[in-house]
Amino acid sequence: xxxxxxxxxxxxxxxxxxxxxxxxxxxxxxxxxxxxxxxxxxxxxxxxxxxxxxxxxxxxxxxxxxxxxxxxxxxxxxxxxxxxxxxxxxxxxxxxxxxxxxxxxxxxxxxxxxxxxxxxxxxxxxxxxxxxxxxxxxxxxxxxxxxxxxxxxxxxxxxxxxxxxxxxxxxxxxxxxxxxxxxxxxxxxxxxxxxxxxxxxxxxxxxxxxxxxxxxxxxxxxxxxxxxxxxxxxxxxxxxxxxxxxxxxxxxxxxxxxxxxxxxxxxxxxxxxxxxxxxxxxxxxxxxxxxxxx
Amino acid sequence: xxxxxxxxxxxxxxxxxxxxxxxxxxxxxxxxxxxxxxxxxxxxxxxxxxxxxxxxxxxxxxxxxxxxxxxxxxxxxxxxxxxxxxxxxxxxxxxxxxxxxxxxxxxxxxxxxxxxxxxxxxxxxxxxxxxxxxxxxxxxxxxxxxxxxxxxxxxxxxxxxxxxxxxxxxxxxxxxxxxxxxxxxxxxxxxxxxxxxxxxxxxxxxxxxxxxxxxxxxxxxxxxxxxxxxxxxxxxxxxxxxxxxxxxxxxxxxxxxxxxxxxxxxxx
Lengths: 294, 268
Prior knowledge:
The complex is a heterodimer.
Chain A: H1 12-42, E1 46-47, E2 52-53, H2 59-66, H3 68-102, H4 108-116, H5 123-134, H6 139-146, H7 161-171, H8 173-185, H9 189-197, H10 202-230, H11 234-238, H12 247-257, H13 261-293
Antiparallel strand pairs in A: 1-2
Chain B: H1 2-28, H2 45-51, H3 54-87, H4 93-101, H5 108-122, H6 128-152, H7 156-164, H8 169-198, H9 201-206, H10 213-220, H11 227-259
């Protein structure tokens, strides 16, 4: 990428730009691009006992997509990530709307600060706290028992997909609020007044002006929440009790415990493909939605 | 009519966000081995138990080494990237910036596993050093994002004025640009430090036998008897991170005041 300055198409400005960006770029190539490429190569090789045989094969991908276990793990991860994303974005939108439209200008950063504080406290401890809260003898069950509302602990609170969705929706909340807030802030307030002056109701103005104009923030929020949740490792481990594995747990198991690096790599690459396809699908649907609005 | 509904909802949402964190100190000072109601009385024993564990201090030392190194390295790399993308036009700029920012949108498990595969293949022993490599990769995009806005709000004419008055590019950078973006640098370093301190997956898989604070905490979860002292540790961590964030926010605001930018709020 950054060859010498001899190239005809490279202006002096271009050369200094390339020189400046080369330290972070070389680091990213060595630590990100090269390892990902290695994993892509591993995924089409054959697993031998304790070694990797240099025999090209697509068997790992066939196994990944046809084996019932891996298919259900991928489907579950996808469902959890979609539910978490939907819950987080829908719950976060009114909060972002409130801070952007109903809070005085000089108070906005204080509100945002309040929203971001829980996010910067240990992710592990926050996830673990949900286990403590929802547990069989946890805070909710013991609290309700102390208040004599229930006699037996509620079993459906923990170790299920719903608890995982709740925990993740809590963990990624600020990720959704901030981009939506930024896009709401950019909306010209005069447009909204114009809508209402022209006889639209508040709700119609919101539906036809505010919501479409804030869509870039919603897309950003969806992608920012969806991508890390589909690859989450800690929540299935703690909240799911290790019995409801997701993609990251499967990758870990195959790469380390089962020492089947080609199959593990194939699942990791498949996960990246799923993430990429879902993201593109969403961007495409959103473009259609925006066109329909006009 | 609409106003109080939204406000009530937002306050309720904030309570949901804070609920797990508020419970931390409650149970850290509760005189019971089980985390459950009703409360059993006040004690500071859990803090003493936590403090007596030598493994904690070993993990803390490792974490500090990792986080400080990560903050310095990521911010340095971030300065290069932010300066290059805000000040220069060059071929492949989009692709280069995209690759540098990519870790922001990749699941950490995939990054840590791919790095682990390469480290094992080339025989690089797993240690604190390999954790630092992983953390720098993850933190650099955040540093770039913060520093890009710092460099963007720079008045280009100040730089030109310095050059016209006979300063070279290097001394212009040190004497004019650096002081102006200093608040951005401090804020980027604090954010990278916080992310690195909190990061678990990379530290867990790339650390080998070395534990950082988050790996230590994860290990403690397996023992129900250790839970109250983890509550005590969590309480201390929450207080520390609020302190750090307030400092970061202070520097960010001072930076905005200095470069004359508008306060848009937030770190991201």
